[in-house]
Design goal:
The protein has a single domain, classed as Uncharacterized conserved protein DUF2267 (Globin-like), CATH 1.10.490. 62% of the residues lie in helices and 0% in strands. α4 packs antiparallel against α5.
Length: 141
């Protein structure tokens, strides 16, 4: 059996995503963009039931999938979705001492994510989730 192309070029695809994310967030380095990505994923994941989190993860390319589930601590109870401003503030508070996220960070991350995923696959996964989860990944906020 052949190794799927998604896995064979996972590192190069992830590097392209991180460069695009850095530019979308108007940051200086991909290390800074990494911190924002972790905050965005954590903020989203904390509002999902496990089945929806795994459904979302399966729709991501391999290394983004890995980032999404790393350091995942399932909560006894999920958090409610909030306004985009409140969710952005939560991202900005994630690892506060090392975070360079600004308002609009979720929308910028969403726009970048959509450029690097199988759109039909991600749309199908989000289509099985609550409306607030779908709204979270709208690039227009």
């Amino acid at each position: 059996m052949t190794v799927p192309i998604d896995y064979r070029q996972a590192s190069a695809d992830f590097d392209r995503f991180m460069v695009d994310l850095r530019e979308a967030l108007e940051l200086q380095t991909t290390h800074q963009a990494w911190g924002v990505l972790l905050g965005v994923f954590d903020t989203f994941r904390r509002r999902l039931e496990a089945r929806d989190a795994l459904r979302f993860a399966r729709a991501l390319p391999p290394l983004l999938r890995s980032v999404f589930v790393q350091d995942w601590h399932m909560l006894d109870q999920t958090l409610p979705f909030a306004s985009r401003a409140a969710l952005d503030a939560e991202v900005m508070a994630y690892h506060r001492d090392h975070q360079l996220a600004q308002p609009g960070c979720i929308a910028a991350t969403a726009a970048t994510l959509w450029q690097h995923v199988d759109k039909e696959r991600l749309s199908a996964a989000l289509g099985k989730m609550p409306a607030e989860a779908r709204e979270f990944w709208h690039a227009d906020g």
